[in-house]
């Protein structure tokens, strides 16, 4: 009788798990690159938080910058994008409604590094003329960084050559091999450059002071965003994705860089593990504590884009339509919050 009861219990549990799997909500999430601004997303995956919400997530890594992910989202080949907030502003200028649903990185995290033969001196902005500058991809925020720098200093957009080199180890290699003179990129590339002696950081926007110096304010970057129509049609799925992501942000806040790296798939880790752990520690200040968008901070990307993007400059942008805190505000919180 005891064995029969045990068999019934096991069968019931198995049936329950199969029923849960059958009812798992499928969602396609694409990520533009494995730079550290996007780190909370793979952490959430590694911790099994999306699965915990009953989601069956299909992930695609474009590894060539957020602009490709944005194209996929608008084309309908992905449901949610892990990309940069400024893309939502760009899309509104093109009369397309793309909305940020949770913020991952509250600050830029970008650096401009020079190779051993670079003659650029930030104290003399005109010395950037003629430089071959590596960016993650055309239309990316690293692209915007350079264009805004040129505009602020009255320099022509044609005074430099912009070359897409991706992120991480590939970007560092481009600088090391002399294919580019300067590199605008994120961690882990920023930490690798210094650790390997490949070059030196000339402009650092990883902390708040650096961001304010470069942009005039805090520059929110990595977010999860989706089209307004997808959000309207799938509010339950969006809430589950946000709940899992907020939980990942809280978990990252309370755990060491080494513990965070332990949750990542090997494909996400660039270079040697110890240097990568150091890169995660260096990047800590950029991550959002709660996933919320700041009404003040979102104005900074708009001002940056207006300086060189004619379509954005000519459009009356309603920032309230580029993000929502409604899902984040409903997300369960840990006791420490």
What does this entry look like structurally?
It is a single chain. The chain has 337 residues and is an alpha/beta fold. The protein folds into two domains: 2-107 and 219-330, Periplasmic binding protein-like II (D-Maltodextrin-Binding Protein, domain 2, 3-Layer(aba) Sandwich); 111-204, Periplasmic binding protein-like II (D-Maltodextrin-Binding Protein, domain 2, 3-Layer(aba) Sandwich). Helices cover 42% and strands 15% of the residues. The protein contains 15 helices and ten strands. It has helices at 2-22, 40-46, 49-52, 66-75, 86-93, 141-152, 169-176, 189-196, 208-215, 228-233, 235-253, 257-262, 273-283, 299-308, 310-313, and strands spanning 25-31, 55-61, 80-84, 98-103, 111-114, 132-135, 161-164, 182-185, 200-204, 222-227. The strands form two sheets. The protein has a five-stranded mixed beta sheet, with helices on both faces. A five-stranded mixed beta sheet has the order 7-6-8-5-9, with helices on both faces. The radius of gyration is 21 Å and the shape is globular. Mean pLDDT is 88; it is low at 1-22.
